[in-house]
Amino acid sequence: MKRKIILYLFFLFFFLKTNAQCAMCRAVLESEETQSAAEGINNGIKYLMAVPYLLIGGIIFFIYRKYGTLKK
């Protein structure tokens, strides 16, 4: 039981620390005049978001092709 409580507290503090970093990044990106860093951050977020969807889509397509051809 102690282990669970310690783990929950660790995750709570870890989460709060990551929220603070997002606010700092936002302030820095909003104060920049050229907005080139903001565009780079946005592109990075798009790539990080797209990769899991492509991987899962590929796995689902592979499973569909493998088991879909067996039913004919």
From TrEMBL:
Instruction: Alphabetically list the UniProt keywords.
Output: Membrane, Signal, Transmembrane, Transmembrane helix
Task: Locate the transmembrane regions by residue number.
Answer: 44-64
Name of the protein in its database record: Uncharacterized protein
Recorded source organism is: Seonamhaeicola sediminis
Residues of the signal sequence?
1-22
Q: Does the keyword Membrane apply?
A: yes
